[in-house]
Design brief:
- By secondary structure, this protein is α/β, with parallel strands linked by helices.
- The chain folds into 3 domains: 153 residues, Alpha-D-Glucose-1,6-Bisphosphate, Chain A, domain 3 (3-Layer(aba) Sandwich), CATH 3.40.120.10; 208 residues, Alpha-D-Glucose-1,6-Bisphosphate, subunit A, domain 3 (Alpha-D-Glucose-1,6-Bisphosphate, Chain A, domain 3, 3-Layer(aba) Sandwich); 87 residues, TATA-Binding Protein.
- The chain contains 16 helices and 21 strands.
- Strands 1-5-4-2-3-6 form a 6-stranded mixed beta sheet, sandwiched between helices. Strands 16-21-20-19-18-17 form a 6-stranded antiparallel beta sheet, covered by helices on one side. Strands 8-7-9-10-11 form a 5-stranded mixed beta sheet.
- Strand 19 and strand 20 form a beta hairpin.
- The longest helix is centred in the N-terminal third of the chain and has 17 residues.
- The protein is globular.
């Protein structure tokens, strides 16, 4: 029976050697090639890149064998590279799209297949639906074009290239690298064994900034960690910051499109705080204006900033396949989501953990404040906001049962606070009369139930999360 290849929140992911096989990667690549030919964009070429996971370079070569056999000029990255670096190459080369072999923050036994549209943004829901229909047809016919990678390289239809040069040139236009290099900051970086290893060093080389990098080498097993930059996975980084009295810690996920930040006290800053602080930097310090796009799991602090600086705030379902089109529609200044991924006007309509980390350093330097002081600065404007998320694994077979259980619950209050409305565009979100909210939704890529809450005190957040878990029965 053919593997059911479905693109979740951002691409297709599966366990290596079970469903994630060379045959299935080639089927996905064939679907992309046929989509490009059908839309008449194949002459613009294709970019293919990969991360540091097990055999990612070989899966990328397998995809290139297929696109080349379909007559599409293919730019193949010659080394593991972050997703935003590859996405920028798609934009800079004016290619029709990009394939990235990565499973982002998933555990090491996973790999994945992402497709980026022209301009480097995540594929829209419409494009994903078309790719999935083509995949089903290819699985039924068994027809996949293929040429040996050595022959494709010899003929010039596949061209190896280094995407860093183009990306570094772009970053120099967006960030004052010399300011950061000469800041004297002590920064500890956790690359989490991912594709972002070495990038901050390369961009900030020289000057008197002091950089230390953890887990910068390639290790596809991701020993002892899951490459997602959230608090439980950054304990070592937090300890190193306290021990070395560092100014800040920056962590990137497996493909470096997300950022996690540890403050000068070794405290993890939530992704909602970081999103709000980066928005505040652009609005207050840089004096920029424009709409901000956030997903439903993002903080109401963004709404408060929108009111304070008279800029509109738009909300989408979770995933940059929703955020990017909205950013285009409203010419947004910034877009972001709770996962720690943020995008910026004038760059790519895609998350960039490296650029986000650099902008945060700029914020610290220009304000002459530590990260913990920047949180206080933010709260002076929007008021205190606290947030937490819990992830609960469940057997995949129980998904519908859990969904039915939550759907059958129709409470009017949570912890004696009235529910103003219940939103179901992406999960179940309960908006309360005191400004708090609780959200229950399923991961788009794994059998994981995520429960989110935001309120004005940590205790209140914990109470909401407990009630959310009671709703689900898991």
């Amino acid at each position: 029976m053919p593997t059911s290849i479905k693109f979740g929140t951002d691409g297709w992911r599966a366990i290596i050697a079970e469903e994630f096989t060379f045959d299935n990667v080639r089927i996905c690549a064939q679907s992309v090639a046929e989509y490009m030919i059908a839309t008449g964009t194949e002459k613009r070429g294709m970019v293919i890149g990969y991360d540091t996971r097990f055999a990612s370079e070989y899966f990328a070569s397998a995809a290139a064998e297929v696109t080349a056999a379909n007559g599409i000029h293919t730019y193949l990255c010659r080394k593991a590279s972050p997703t935003p670096v590859i996405s920028y190459a798609v934009k800079d080369l004016d290619a029709a799209g990009g394939i990235i072999i990565t499973a982002s923050h998933n555990p090491g036994r996973y790999n994945g297949f992402k497709f980026k549209q022209q301009g480097g943004s995540s594929a829209s829901t419409d494009v994903i639906a078309k790719l999935e229909r083509i995949i089903s047809r290819i699985q039924a016919s068994g027809v996949v074009e293929r040429i040996a990678i050595e022959h494709a390289l010899d003929r010039g239809v596949v061209e190896e290239f280094d995407p860093d040069v183009r990306y570094f040139r772009q970053i120099e236009e967006l960030v004052d690298l010399e300011l950061i290099r000469s800041s004297g900051l002590k920064v500890i970086i956790d690359a989490m064994y991912g594709a972002g290893g070495g990038y901050f060093h390369s961009l900030l080389n020289g000057g008197n900034i002091r950089l230390t990098e953890l887990h910068g080498e390639r290790n596809p097993a991701f020993p002892g960690i899951r490459p997602e930059p959230i608090a439980p996975n950054l304990v070592q980084l937090s300890r190193r910051i306290r021990r070395n009295k560092a100014d800040v810690g920056l962590a990137t996920d497996g493909d470096a499109d997300r950022i996690g930040i540890i403050d000068n006290k070794g405290v993890y800053l939530t992704t909602l705080q970081v999103f709000a602080m980066l928005s505040l930097y652009l609005l207050e310090v840089c004096g920029k204006r424009g709409p901000i796009v956030k997903t439903i799991t993002s903080s109401s602090m963004i709404d408060r900033l929108g009111e304070a600086y008279n800029v509109p705030v738009y909300e989408t379902p979770v995933g940059f396949k929703y955020v990017a089109p909205k950013m285009v529609e409203v010419d947004a200044l910034m877009g972001g989501e709770e996962s720690g991924g943020y995008a910026y006007r004038g760059h790519i309509l895609e998350r960039d953990g490296i650029l986000s980390g650099l902008l945060f350093l700029e914020f610290m330097i220009k304000m002459r404040k530590s990260p913990s002081q920047l949180v206080e600065f933010l709260y002076d404007i929007v008021g205190p906001h606290y947030y937490h998320r819990i992830d609960v694994e469940f057997p995949a077979s129980e998904r519908q049962t859990i969904m039915d259980r939550v759907n059958d619950i129709n409470p009017s209050q949570i912890n004696n606070v009235d529910i103003l409305r219940i939103e179901t565009s992406d999960g179940y979100r309960y908006i309360l009369s005191d400004g708090s909210w609780l959200l229950i939704r399923f991961s788009g890529t794994e059998p994981i139930l995520r429960i989110y809450a935001e309120s004005d005190s940590p205790d209140r957040v914990n109470d909401l999360l407990s009630e959310g878990r009671n709703f689900t029965g898991v």
